[in-house]
Amino acid sequence: MKKTTELKQLRDLSAEELRDRETDLAERLFTYRVQKVIGQLEKPSKVRDAKRGMARVLTVLSEKERAR
User: Are 62 and 19 in contact (CB under 8 A)?
Assistant: First the structure.
């Protein structure tokens, strides 16, 4: 149920806001991967969550671009 509300919120954002969120998630994913290699990442599931969040943002962004 949480994911559907997150998708609704993402669909309400503009394309520019989605690109900003994509950039933020890419930076966060990079940080998590570096921490994982170094051994400082407390929850390895953060990498998976960031990847899924990135996929959601990219999906909504492509939906908006196709709708034009």
Answer: no
Q: CA 34, CA 4: separation in Å to the nearest integer? A: 30
Per-residue pLDDT tens over the stretch 15-58 = 999 999 999 999 999 999 999 999 999 999 999 999 999 999 99
65 to 7, 16, 40, 45, 59: CA distances (angstroms): 16, 12, 38, 30, 10
The pTM (predicted TM-score) of the whole model is 0.86
Helix (H) or strand (E) holding 41: none
